[in-house]
Design brief:
Length: 276
């Protein structure tokens, strides 16, 4: 019995010794870690250099002018300082060249160049639509009588919007005579309805947006066989003072329209382009 008690006592003593050892080791570790951290802190405090910042006085703040951002010049700003210039054939030619510069080879770009004979005289900003058309189409009465082909027009007037289309058709009254004019825009009018309208009877004048006119040509609802005059509503500006070619999507549609048979018609001396 005594031996057993002695053994138990020894085991307890051994356990206590181990516990005290582990506790001592933990204490030593924590002490060393603390000392290392303290040394690092001291070093960082020594290396840090604090530069005192100058406090601005109220007088200095008031004298400093606030930084102004440079505003981009808008079309309105440009027109405020200079009078709008009427469009000319060179403007259209430059637009075509710029648009196709990265889409066509050098040889193909040469083919896109139009001769002066392809253009009608341009509007000098003094004409109404009727007076301009009377000037560039002096034999209109004879031309309209000779036109008997359906799904084609003799005169195409291209503008930027549906509202402008309606406005231009109203301005045609003194010029068109007995000729029939049709609206060619996408707003509230389905393309199928316009195709049926063009197939129904003879139409002499088409007025509309380049996007819808291109779509009609692609759907074969409108052909260019009888086309003789293409008039671009070049100089008119909207509420934001943008011309038709200043609106990216309209410009894109216009280039597509020119590519859809207009330029080739000009090359063959069948179509003349006028800038109104």
């Amino acid at each position: 019995m005594r031996l057993r008690q002695m053994r138990r006592q020894n085991k307890r003593n051994d356990r206590q010794k181990k516990q005290t050892r582990s506790q001592n080791q933990r204490r030593e570790r924590s002490i060393t870690e603390k000392t290392v951290k303290a040394k690092k802190k001291k070093k960082s405090e020594q290396t840090e250099c604090i530069i005192p910042q100058k406090k601005e006085t109220e007088d200095e703040k008031s004298t400093k002018a606030p930084k102004k951002r440079k505003k981009k010049k808008t079309i309105t700003d440009v027109l405020a300082t200079s009078e709008p210039k009427p469009g000319c054939p060179a403007d259209l030619q430059n637009l075509i060249t710029q648009h196709f510069s990265d889409k066509r080879s050098v040889i193909e770009q040469e083919e896109l160049k139009l001769q002066d004979s392809c253009f009608l005289s341009s509007n000098d900003l003094t004409h109404s639509l009727s007076s301009y058309l009377k000037q560039v189409c002096p034999k209109w009465a004879k031309i309209q009588k000779q036109h008997t082909q359906k799904t084609s027009v003799v005169l195409l007037i291209v503008c930027s919007s549906a509202l402008r289309t309606i406005e231009l058709i109203k301005q045609l009254t003194t010029f068109k005579g007995e000729a029939k004019a049709v609206k060619l825009f996408a707003k509230h009018i389905k393309i199928e309805e316009q195709v049926k309208l063009l197939q129904k009877g003879v139409t002499h004048i088409g007025v509309g947006t380049p996007g819808r006119i291109s779509a009609l040509i692609e759907k074969e609802g409108l052909n260019l066989q009888a086309l003789r005059y293409l008039v671009l509503d070049w100089n008119w500006r909207d509420q934001k003072l943008r011309r038709m070619v200043d609106i990216p999507e309209i410009k894109q549609d216009l280039m597509k329209l020119l590519e859809n048979g207009i330029l080739s018609g000009c090359k063959d001396d069948k179509v003349k382009i006028g800038l109104f």
